[in-house]
Structure formats: C-alpha cells, structure tokens
Specification:
With 349 residues, this protein is of the alpha/beta class. The protein has helices spanning 4-7, 16-26, 45-49, 67-80, 97-109, 122-134, 160-175, 193-208, 223-236, 248-261, 275-283, 298-310, 339-342, and strands at residues 55-60, 86-90, 114-117, 139-142, 154-157, 183-187, 213-218, 242-245, 267-272, 288-293, 326-328, 333-334. It folds into two domains: 51-157 and 296-313, 3-Layer(aba) Sandwich (Rossmann fold), CATH 3.40.50.2300; 160-294 and 334-345, 3-Layer(aba) Sandwich (Rossmann fold), CATH 3.40.50. Helices cover 42% and strands 16% of the residues.
Length: 349
C-alpha cells in the first residue's frame, strides 16, 4: 500500500504554543482550570454557531452545466440559509472569465464583507481577487487555485492527486495480486491541471503494487464525451481487469458504452461521488464497484469559512485562533460497505 507520507498532503494546525502561553498567563489564585475554548485561544462550537454581526458574502461560481457544479452552487446557497447572520449575494454562474471579473468588481464596489469565489479560470481571476484583498475584503478561493497567494485569505480544495491515489490503491487491493492485470483509465480534459494531478496520483499508486495503465483515453467531463471515449477504449482493449473513470457525470456515458459493448469482465471505479453512481454501487448490479469522493461541499465549506473569517472567529476543533489559510479535503473511496455514509451528501448527475 502507498504510505501516507508519500502523498504529501497533510494539513497541519499550528498554535499549541500560543495556547499554552495563554493558559499560563491566565492562571490566577483560585483558578479552577475550567477555562472555555475562547479563553485559551480557541473557539467553541457554541461560539461559532451563535448569531453574530451580519456579514454580507458575495458568491460567484461557474455555470452549473455539470452535476458537480450544480451541487456546488446549491450547497453554497443552502449553507448560507442556515445562518440568520449571513446576507448572501449570488452572482449568476458563468464560464466567461471576463464576466466573472466584473462580478467580483461589483462585490468590491458594494463593499461586501467577504467573497467566496470558485473561479472559472484561477489565473484569469487572480488580479481581481488581489484587488478585493487589498480593499480589505477576504477572499475564500474554492476548488481552482489562483496563481498568487496574495489573492485569497483561505483556499479550500478537493484533492485531485489524492483522488488518483485512492483509485489506484483500491485497484491494487482488488487486482494487485495479478501482476499481469490490465488497467485502463478514462480521464477528463487532459489540458487541465486537475486531470494531470489525478492521473499522476493514479500512476503513483499503481506503481506501488507493480501495476501500470495499459490503455488510456481522455473525455471531456460530459456524458457524450464519456460514451465516445469509452467506445474507443473498449474497441482497443479486448480484455480489461480494472478501469478508473475520473468523473461520475461523464460516467453515465462511460457505463452506457460498456453496456452497449456487453462488457462486464472488469471492475470499475468512478470519481467525484454522484448519487446515481453510489446507488449503482449499493445495488451490486454493475461493473461500478467504487467511486472516489471529490467533495461538492467545497463552496458550502467556503461560506462557513467566510462567515468565521468576517466575524473574526476560528475553527472550533483547532487550538489556532484564526482560520487556516489552506485546507485540502480528503478523497475517500466509497464502496458497498460504506456507501450509506456518503449518500446524504452525494450530488445528482
């Protein structure tokens, strides 16, 4: 199995030294030692959930032309509705970087308290995000990174490399005892760094058990693209033992092509964590045996973090007195054994 240090994806919470100092300086005669989290430098769940000053949060994301992106937008709005002290301003979803830049400029002119931004293009939105930060508006960068650390107060990401590692590790567990196992891969858009990261993680994990990808095609994260690419792959590979498809939305087309070809000799792993994929896994009536989560809750997490930052609060499970500046979410494997745990947060393809 791939060792944890090999992934290089650890989030470290600093601040224990500061907490110890606060405890020492705060002790007086008769102190019972029952300080609250706030008194020792941390935040409590109760503190964070309590209604505070109203914060105006601007939210902008790409057009919801993909099940995962639709879930991103919906979950952000739903999360904001849970808090009476959040005034959420939602810009229309767009895949036009110039339009999204103008949306952020409007948020800056409106002097919102924080901006949650899933950029259609991280590099293209970097400059305007820096402008927001320089105007004193904290930016929460979601999913697609800016090209400068000065462009955001917090960056929250799914783990694309980790997705590949998780998929490869699962396949190693299932077919790794066969040194001649034929492994296939259906990627997303090859020009995107996220696709490159997923493929690199997959290759690294397979190498750990002596396997490699024998057949690979790239699709385009659409149903039609998934079906076309899979038909091409299956024609070129008469025998497959394991297949990883990077994306459950394009996976609808992938599975359609597999059914049309009458192929069922292999196991398939999906990616992202759609509801329909999880239901197939639960049924046991498909070649799809697992999927790897790429959380569609990232923007909802961004809304929560924006609220905490704007209200000068911290994360309740950390000793650190401020919200971290970078958070990378986990990429767990969903199988028939744990699918019920993940179904409630799955998105509709």
């Amino acid at each position: 199995m791939l060792s944890l240090h090999k992934r290089g994806r650890t989030l470290v919470a600093a601040g224990a030294t500061l907490a110890a100092a606060l405890v020492l300086t705060g002790c007086t005669a008769g102190d019972t030692g029952t300080d609250t989290g706030a008194e020792t430098g941390g935040s409590t769940v109760e503190d964070n959930e309590a209604k505070g000053d109203t914060v105006v949060i601007g939210f902008s994301g790409p057009a919801a032309d993909h099940g995962w992106l639709g879930a991103i937008n919906a979950s952000a709005i739903a999360e904001a509705e849970k808090y009476p002290d959040i005034d959420l301003r939602v810009a229309e979803g767009t895949n036009d970087a110039n339009l999204q830049i103008s949306q952020v400029e409007t948020f800056i002119n409106d002097k919102v308290d924080a901006i949650v931004l899933l950029p259609t293009d991280g590099a293209a939105l970097t400059e305007v995000a820096i402008q927001a930060m320089e105007a004193g508006i904290p930016v929460i960068n979601v999913d697609r990174e800016f090209s400068s650390t000065f462009a955001s107060r917090v960056t929250i990401l799914g783990d694309n490399y980790g997705m590949g590692v998780s998929a490869g590790t699962y396949i190693c567990e299932e077919v790794g005892d066969n040194p001649d196992a034929i492994v296939a891969e259906i990627a997303g858009i090859d020009s995107l760094p996220l696709t490159q990261d997923r493929t690199q993680g997959f290759n690294d994990a397979l190498e750990d058990c002596g396997l490699e990808v024998s057949n690979r095609v790239a699709a385009d994260f659409t149903v039609q693209g998934g079906e076309a690419a899979t038909s091409q792959l299956l024609a070129a590979a008469p025998q497959i033992d394991a297949l990883w498809n990077h994306d459950d939305d394009q996976g609808i087309g992938v599975l359609a092509a597999i059914d049309a070809a009458g192929r069922d000799e292999f196991i398939m792993v999906g990616g992202a964590g759609s509801k329909n994929a999880m239901e197939l896994i639960k049924s046991g009536d498909s070649v799809l045996k697992a999927t790897v989560i790429y959380p569609s809750t990232q923007a909802a997490d961004g809304i929560r973090l924006a609220r905490l930052v704007a209200q000068e609060k911290a994360m309740s499970d950390l000793v650190e007195i401020e919200v971290p500046n970078r958070i990378v979410l986990n990429a767990p494997v969903v199988t028939s054994e744990n699918v019920d745990k993940y179904l409630p947060t799955a998105f509709e393809s």
